[in-house]
Design brief:
Helix 6 crosses helix 8 and helix 19 packs across helix 24. This protein has 27 helices and five strands. A hairpin with an 8-residue loop joins strand 4 and strand 5. The termini are far apart. It is mainly alpha-helical. The strands form two sheets. A three-stranded mixed β-sheet has the order 3-5-4, sandwiched between helices.
């Protein structure tokens, strides 16, 4: 089962500031560099701010849980039906090999249809077990059950299924063309013909230069549950889920909180001292032992990546990921170069502005890393602030109110997507509460057409949690729209997977900016939006640079925590400058270990650039919408409905965008991020913050 874990802040503007009392800043963990993937928490959560006062209690036991059984047909993960279902699937897989191996030259369509049917059955079981385990991480019996099924599936795939895509990739062009030419184009949508699967066929055949011998591929598949990176990454995830922290000003007898809550409190606090203490607790907590576990896991991942690259003949460090994304190496390098040349100066320019405003509104004495995502609360009047105003607690948002906010925001852009969202809520496809033994963070699992999607959240009543709900729901809508492409083709490439949610964010953000009641409110919105863009563009490219440094050093021996600390600091200085020299930051206190809990480094190496890709593409899409709004919603929904059947060039062509052009990224940064920064600077000057 593959879960695309996407947690960029999304749709957040307006969804959480539709009324004057609901302001926000985008502090999504994966987006901002804070990316927990496991957690342990209490069943009832109380909001806590810089003064540690109680505001609102979120009763976790009353929040909705997803209901898997009606969709999957299994009562529990230990249901004997699963074993019967797996036995039948194994028989089908064995028959598939006997019937179709060495016969793809004449039976390709039937083979693909049968392969898809078997893949759906396998994904159904694996998805059900993964989803069940992710809300019950402390259940050792379930962990053992999931592992046992995974081992059976690996052996089954190696023995009966792994041959198929290898043979399809190697099928002679003439034999493939002959079958395509026989395609009956008059077939109905339900009667899939070979041409319908053209995108899948092309995707498989792109891998041909990097495939190994059948016997080697089989051996790798069968061994995967036992050896390699999977056990280490799994251990890292479990250890991270057990971490808890004290909040600043919290009594020693009070329950500790998980990483999600600590980060939420830090990024929502208007007190610089409180924020700094939160970051200190986080960094020290990671340094106790997680850095060693994370270093061991990352070293294994980097070593495996290096060996695979060499054995399979990938020409560059990121080529393997780029091929999966159907994105040429040259385009990705242009993106990274553009962010470095145009994004970094804009980033520093913005933080100079934010530093001045925080000094004025919060009495900030030193601008540090913990202030990077600090909320900006401009006074109601048009002018500045002495910094002596009472710091207000963040209001906690109920689940029902969060649902209303997201529905309202979606409906402003697309009533159809709003309807999909409400269906997910009503059909109990969202596991909401932050409770003990549940996987941290958030994701949307597409599963298979007809069963998915399902969302996992850790809702704590914060504004960020509303943003996360909106974002994951965007992915759910994307899945639903793309299911018509079939199980083998509905997954969009990562370069396009963020389109629905981030575009919705832009629509609502601009609408709110237009109706802002004061210049102060308008500046608050602008600053939060720039935080969001920098976190998903510049920040993610700094992550990519850290990975580059770590993977580059792996050939010289096992990676150790102290070495990775140094790489982390190097990447920070390259993208944010050196304090006291060329950086707006006065110090980088308590940041050395923050690399240790970013999940992407372990589960999807060199994945993070796709966030920057998506945000800049959506920025240019929005400009296209501004200049040519007629029919735009239809074109965008058509893009989403294509799933994985179009690469990024073909998908964006109807909008007049050319991301394959080397100048596209720098131009997009200047127009998108540069335009927002300029708006914020001009408004700040009017309000006396220049």
């Amino acid at each position: 089962c593959v879960f695309i874990v996407m947690r960029l802040g999304s749709f957040l503007w307006g969804l959480i500031v539709s009324s004057p009392s609901h302001n926000t800043n985008n502090s999504d963990p994966a987006h901002s560099g804070f990316a927990p993937i496991g957690q342990s928490s209490t069943s009832t959560r109380t909001s806590s701010t810089s003064s540690n006062k109680t505001s609102t209690t979120i009763n976790m036991t009353e929040l909705p849980r997803w209901d898997l059984s009606p969709r999957f047909g299994f009562s529990t993960p230990f249901d004997p039906k699963i074993d019967d279902f797996m036995a039948e699937t194994s028989s089908q897989a064995k028959a598939f090999k006997e019937i179709y191996e060495n016969h793809l030259d004449t039976k390709l369509l039937n083979a693909i249809l049968e392969y898809q049917a078997i893949s759906i059955r396998r994904s159904t079981v694996s998805s059900y077990l993964h989803l069940s385990y992710d809300v019950d991480l402390n259940n050792d019996a379930l962990k053992k059950r999931k592992g046992e099924i995974s081992e059976r599936m690996a052996a089954e795939h190696g023995d009966f299924l792994s041959w198929f895509e290898l043979d399809l990739a190697s099928l002679e062009d003439a034999l493939l063309t002959a079958q395509l030419e026989k395609t009956d184009t008059s077939s109905s949508a339900e009667e899939k013909n070979l041409a319908f699967f053209q995108s899948y066929i092309e995707e498989v055949r792109r891998q041909k230069p990097h495939n190994l011998e059948k016997s080697v591929e089989r051996a790798l598949t069968v061994r995967s549950p036992y050896v390699g990176t999977r056990p280490l990454v799994g251990f890292f995830v479990k250890e991270l889920s057990l971490l808890t922290f004290h909040l600043p000003n919290q009594a020693e007898t009070d329950d500790e909180v998980n990483m999600e809550v600590l980060l939420s409190r830090m990024t929502s606090s208007g007190d610089a001292t409180y924020r700094a203490e939160c970051l200190k607790n986080l960094n020290e907590g990671l340094g106790n032992h997680i850095v060693r576990v994370s270093a061991l896991s990352l070293s294994a991942v980097a070593g495996s990546w290096s060996v695979e690259n060499k054995e399979r003949g990938y020409k560059a460090l990121r080529s393997r990921r780029n091929l999966d994304n159907n994105c040429p190496d040259e385009v990705v390098q242009s993106l990274l170069d553009g962010v470095k040349s145009a994004g970094v100066p804009l980033c520093k320019r913005y933080y100079d502005l934010k530093k001045r405003i925080l000094k004025s509104t919060q009495g900030l004495e030193k601008f540090t890393w913990s202030d990077r995502n600090a909320p900006i609360d401009i006074p109601k009047g048009e002018g500045g602030s002495s910094g002596n105003e009472e710091k207000k607690e963040e209001e906690m948002i109920s689940w029902d109110e969060a649902v209303k906010m997201v529905e309202r925001g979606y409906r402003k852009f697309s009533p159809r997507m709003a309807g999909m969202f409400m269906d997910m809520v009503r059909e109990k496809r969202i596991d909401v509460p932050a409770i003990d033994g549940k996987r941290g963070g958030a994701y949307c699992a597409g599963v298979v057409p007809g069963i998915g999607p399902f969302q996992l959240l850790n809702f704590d009543g914060s504004k960020r949690d509303v943003a996360t709900l909106a974002h994951e729901s965007g992915h759910g809508c994307h899945d639903i729209l793309a299911y018509g492409q079939g199980h083998l083709q509905y997954h969009p490439p990562l370069t396009l997977a963020e389109t629905a949610s981030i575009f919705g964010e832009m629509i609502v953000f601009r609408d709110l900016l237009d109706v802002a009641s004061s210049k102060g409110e308008r500046l608050t919105l602008l600053m939060s939006k720039v935080d969001d863009v920098i976190n998903s563009v510049v920040r993610q490219c700094s992550f990519d640079r850290f990975e580059e440094l770590a993977h580059g050093a792996r050939d010289k021996g096992e990676l150790v925590a102290s070495e990775l600390d140094e790489f982390w600091m190097q990447a920070m200085k390259e993208y944010y400058g050196t304090p006291g020299e060329d950086s707006p930051f006065d110090a980088y206190d308590n940041v050395s270990h923050l690399w240790a809990y970013v999940p992407h480094f372990h589960s999807v190496p060199f994945y993070v650039y796709s966030y920057a890709f998506a945000d800049l593409v959506v920025g240019t899409l929005y400009r296209s919408f501004q200049t040519n709004p007629d029919g735009f919603e239809g074109r965008l929904l058509e893009l989403l409905s294509a799933g994985g059947t179009k690469d990024f060039v073909e998908a964006l062509e109807p909008f007049g965008l050319e991301p394959q052009n080397p100048s596209f990224w720098a131009d997009a940064l200047e127009a998108h991020l540069g335009g927002l920064v300029s708006e914020a600077e001009a408004l700040a000057a009017e309000l006396g913050y220049a």
